[in-house]
Specification:
With 119 residues, this protein is an all-beta fold. It contains no helices and eleven strands. The termini are far apart.
């Protein structure tokens, strides 16, 4: 099993910055791709950013140039640095990781952290 603990959400004014963290713990052989999703009220959960085990990254068009995803493999932690925040970035942010256990590879979700950007 894998447990994910998110932190770093909060309330910020437009133009401000926040840094989200998601730490994985438990019994697993490796953490593969790590992703951040977000879900605003009444909307579906959308992919924000992904980082592969090799460090390759990709972003949703809406956050390119403002958000940066990174990972610390020694700490099994993924980060999302969010700059130049806009009110439309307001959502619950979820991390998602693919972990290889003894019996296969599975996806796990964090509990979510609220990000609110005021205008």
């Amino acid at each position: 099993q894998v447990q994910l603990v998110e932190s770093g959400g909060g309330l910020v004014q437009a133009g401000g910055s926040l840094r989200l963290s998601c730490a994985a713990s438990g019994s697993f052989f490796s953490i593969n791709a790590m992703r951040w999703y977000r879900q605003a009220p009444g909307n579906q959960r959308d992919l924000v950013a992904i980082i592969t085990s090799g460090g390759g990254t990709n972003y949703a068009d809406s956050v390119k140039g403002r958000f940066t995803i990174s990972r610390d493999n020694a700490k099994n932690t993924v980060y999302l640095q969010m700059n130049s925040l806009k009110p439309e970035d307001t959502a619950v942010y979820y991390c998602n990781v693919l972990a290889t256990l003894g019996v296969g590879t599975y996806a796990y979700w964090g509990q979510g952290t609220q990000v609110t950007v005021s205008s």
